[in-house]
Amino acid sequence: MKIDEYYYNAIDLLKKMIAIRSVSREETLLADMLEDHLKKMNFVPSRKGNNLWISSREWKEGKPVILLNSHIDTVKPVAGWTKNPYVPEEIEGKLYGLGSNDAGASLVSLLSVFLLLTSKEQDYNLIFLASAEEEVSGKEGIELALVDLPPVSFAIVGEPTAMQPAIAERGLMVLDCVVEGRSGHAARNEGENAIYKTFPIIDWFRTKQFPRKSDLLGEVKMTVTMINSGTQHNVIPDKCTFTVDVRTNELYSNQELYNSIVESMENCKIEARSFRLNSSGLPSNHPILSRIKLLGLKPFGSPTLSDQSLMSFPSIKIGPGESSRSHTADEFIYSTEIREAIELYFKLLDGFNFE
Length: 355
Known about the structure:
Elements: H1 4-18, H2 28-40, E1 46-48, E2 51-55, E3 65-71, E4 89-91, E5 94-96, H3 100-117, E6 125-131, H4 142-146, E7 154-157, E8 166-169, E9 171-180, H5 194-207, E10 221-229, E11 239-248, H6 254-264, E12 269-272, E13 280-281, H7 288-294, E14 300-302, E15 315-317, E16 332-334, H8 335-349
Helix pairs in contact: 1-3, 1-8, 3-8
């Protein structure tokens, strides 16, 4: 397999991506550039919002479908950048720029391997999807595209994992909670202090352990992260609101956990902002695990969220770069990591079948 041309093209494309601001919900210019890029490669990309996808040219009905996905949006640059985040800069094997590690390197590597894999007969059809709004779990992101795709049998989601496969991923559910009391003057023994009523409820969230513990992701984790109450120092607060960050494992759906929490709770109104971002886990008998073992890769459970949470089909998360570099000042990717990613993605999927 000669990958030099694909590798150099991937680096060039990543530099173009870095040079275009693509903060979440502001990806239009980058999506326009990628659409033009795919057209110059003689593809007819489909587009919905700022989500773009292309399919195998030799599409054959009846074959299973593998989806290759990564995202085009970035977080906003943090204050500590010493370089221009929108000027790609190569120094001693590192390519600096916002989105280089998360997740531009994954996206250009997956596009390269899409081209490599579809240049020969495979036992599956292939779709490459560049999605938007991943960093904010936005509703104008991958969900828009998934409803227009044919049924997907398996997906690879490109995120920086040092090219080790995350075969399970935590989900997220955010709870907004309200405890009500009765106001009164703080100098007199009046009212019902909503803050005091909240203490045992917060302690319940801190100490509660759900029985199903995942081998890969551990137990469900609940953390109270915000609290607000009171109007002034001499008024007994009649309301206390707080927010709970719930990180789920693949053994519970968000809806199931929400129902259990509400049933256990008294004197507290609880609303979930969304049930969309569920945990995911690969079935223990999935055939991709044989490839993973053959290649000497080390499966793990990921604590961080990605577009996997919006996929109803089996998937793994794997990509070049390190998660620890994401969302940091002077973000970078090693050029060699992109070459290695193209080679490993190819080994993982070339000749793969679902039997």
